[in-house]
Amino acid sequence: MTTTLTAEIDVEAPVDAVYNQWTQFESFPEYLGAVKVVQQIDDVRTRWTVSIGGREEAFYADVVEQVPDQHIAWQSTDGIFHAGSVDFEPRRSEAGVDETHVRLRMDWEPQGILETLGAAVGIDKAQAQMDLQRFKTFIEKRGGETGGWRGEIHDGRKTASDE
């Protein structure tokens, strides 16, 4: 049974900075609670180590769609099924400050009783919302992104470079 969760947040930073930070997969452990390590293999492929319910799991995931300042989508390629997307929408606050609305969606197949129960009672959604809050705090306190990749990926293939 596949479980889906969504979470959203407004970040007080321009869309290019927020998007750029999200392309820095290796920094995810700094603000995504379950993520222990992300290794960037190439422009499309990553290797993840996560801790869920006290159990470590590792898997590969590929970026399947990536359009600068708009959208990133990924899917696991081995192990348990996991897929997701994040969308970025530029906004301007009432005070005239550039903001970005971040919308996260994740789909996965819970493994075991703890993950199934966590999904059923909304613990996963709460964790995702806390992760987005940590992401917001991370980029707002820094005053900008740690790097960025501006290439495009469609159907799991790089179609435009970031140069």
Automatic annotation (TrEMBL):
Q: Where is the Coenzyme Q-binding protein COQ10 START domain?
A: 11-130
Record InterPro entries: COQ10_START (IPR005031), ORF3 (IPR047137), START-like_dom_sf (IPR023393)
Q: Which Pfam families match?
A: Polyketide_cyc (PF03364)
- What CDD domains does its record include? SRPBCC_8
Matching entries from PANTHER family are given as: POLYKETIDE CYCLASE/DEHYDRASE AND LIPID TRANSPORT SUPERFAMILY PROTEIN, POLYKETIDE CYCLASE_DEHYDRASE AND LIPID TRANSPORT SUPERFAMILY PROTEIN
Q: What is this protein called?
A: SRPBCC family protein
Source species: Microbacterium marinilacus
